[in-house]
Amino acid sequence: MSEAAIAPSSDIVKEADAAVELLAQVRAEIGKVVFGQERVVELVLATVLAGGHALLIGAPGLAKTKLVEATARALGLDWGRVQFTPDLMPSDILGSEILDEGASGRAFRFVKGPIFTSLLMADEINRASPRTQSALLQAMQERHVTVAGASYDLPKPFHVLATQNPIEQEGTYPLPEAQLDRFLLKVDVDYPDAETERRILVETTGLGDQTVRPVLDAEKLIAIQSLVRRMTVGEEVLEAILRLVRSARPEQSDNPQVKKRVDWGPSPRAGQSLMLAARSRALLRGRLAPSLDDIEALAEPALGHRMALAYDPTGQGGTLSALIQELVAKVA
């Protein structure tokens, strides 16, 4: 493919320049209250710009709720939080019909649940029953809910940032593979470094409180999401995504480690997610097209929850993350 064939138009360049400036302001606003998590913030924003949902995995107290709130405020979106518990019912999230009695008689009225917001935090999603998980994840995929035979569209845009605690697994219901596949990226939230933790101690235990200023609104965000889908992807990057996804499947890979250690590999949706997220990350970094660096950075977040290793009784086989990085090194 020639350079002329993939050269962006002048209109896209202008839109991208304006979007890059706005997104830099969004990151700066989030950085006022979320310290030392630049990679996590970038992955969350890349997910939203790509129009998807993210699964945040990290121990309690790592500012995941603060991150979601700050992201919603900086993007100018309505947001809500649902604490998932074993007794949570689908109607507690989706809404339900109630019987009203008025002057004209009795009639059912639909009361919307907390899912009717632009950015929903599903806190500890694996603590809810599979029935409740499925209700949420169906809404994530179809962008509408159905109650008593009537369909109700969710707001636009609509994104879910779900969290999981990797420490406590007792009394939880792990998400099945088909439902994990609906998350665009899996984001690991790690402990801060020493300097960042010092800053947290100093700046969050006093009387001052930073306010996150809205930079975008729903309409502007939707326009940027449209821009992301119109960004060009070079042939080299496209081939790298294709080779990476196919090399991670034991049925199609020529890598002996994949054939031996991988139970099941990523679906085509993994490639779609990686391609969209790569475009988003490129825009966040001021570029008009994704590069191989974007594929390398996003490979584990895009593929890690869409693959499973076979049981290794020796424990010497290595981690899935290391295997993905090995595959990336061969294609990027």
Question: Short description, anyone?
Answer:
By secondary structure, the chain is α/β, with parallel strands linked by helices. The chain has two domains: 9-230, P-loop containing nucleotide triphosphate hydrolases (Rossmann fold, 3-Layer(aba) Sandwich), CATH 3.40.50; 233-332, Magnesium chelatase subunit I, C-Terminal domain (Helicase, Ruva Protein, domain 3, Orthogonal Bundle), CATH 1.10.8.
Describe this structure in words.
The protein is of the alpha/beta class and 332 residues long. The protein has two domains: 9-230, Rossmann fold (3-Layer(aba) Sandwich); 233-332, Helicase, Ruva Protein, domain 3, CATH 1.10.8.80. 47% of the residues lie in helices and 16% in strands. Helix 10 crosses helix 12. Mean pLDDT is 90; it is low at 1-5.
Largest sheet: 5 strands, parallel
Look at the helices and sheets and give the structural class: alpha/beta
Kindly provide the name of the CATH class of the largest domain: Alpha Beta
**Helix fraction?**
40-55%
> What does the overall shape look like?
globular
* CATH architectural label of the largest domain: 3-Layer(aba) Sandwich
Low-confidence stretches: 1-5
What CATH calls the topology of the largest domain is Rossmann fold
